[in-house]
Specification:
Blueprint (H helix, E strand, L loop, with lengths): L1 H18 L2 E7 L4 E8 L9 H25 L9 H7 L1 H12 L2 E7 L5 E8 L7 H5 L32 E5 L16 E3 L4 E3 L6 H7 L3 E3 L12 E5 L2 E3 L4 E4 L1 H14 L7 E4 L1
Helix pairs in contact: 2-4, 3-4
Amino acid sequence: MIRKFKLLGLLAAIIMFALSGRVDAATNWNTNVIQATGTGVSNPAMATSPAHASMMARRAAIADAYRQLLELVQGVNVDAETTVEQMMLTSDVVKIKVTGVVKGARIVSEGELSGGGYSVTMELPIFGESGSLAESVLERPTYVEPIPAPSPAYEPPVQQPTYGGGRYTGLIVDCRGLREGEINPVMSPVIKNSNGMKIYGHLNLDFDRIIREGMATYAQSMSEAARAGSNPLVVKAIRLDDLNANPVLSMDDADMVLYENSQSHFLDNIAVVFLY
């Protein structure tokens, strides 16, 4: 008899999943949030009342949202060469942590659908102090490298930029219109100069701050680039390396970024935005 009830429960779950469908799911690299909307309906033959039917539909919608979130999370690029899914396949610890993050996703909106059924929207943070994806997949480095200095041959501009008595508040790297295509968002990006030297990467930064805030945001316009502050230094990438994940700057622009950072520390403050 117990086996029969388990079988009926499994069939009910299958029916509810079959009747639920994907409505919306997306990874927002500007707000660093992963969001999914699941839908579900109940099986009228199994519902004992309208309230029971609504409860069954809600449960199916939540399960559908969880499924979509897991799919999105697995596809997130940790760096240029590694996805979350690859890390989950090679580490049971990471798999357990990521699964826990998905299960901890919060409901941001829900309600019954006008045509019947139920809708639930859930989201989880890519970065954050608690319950974020970053906590699950990023490893604390064993050492910290200082952000490099500009090349000895670099000559700072005579007219120093100022804004309200200060200097540059952040960095915007324009990655639009490159022959390689669009930049590929990753959790741990690198900025390089044209000689291949890294001028910005996770080894240069406070790890706890990376977990809380991430290393950069990705914006489609200047209006979305608030992270770089009110007076950002804007430079144009000359190409994209490493599967389009990491922007490359000319030597002159890279030296300018490093010099200006030595004055106002916007790289140390992870005030970085990539335009795509």
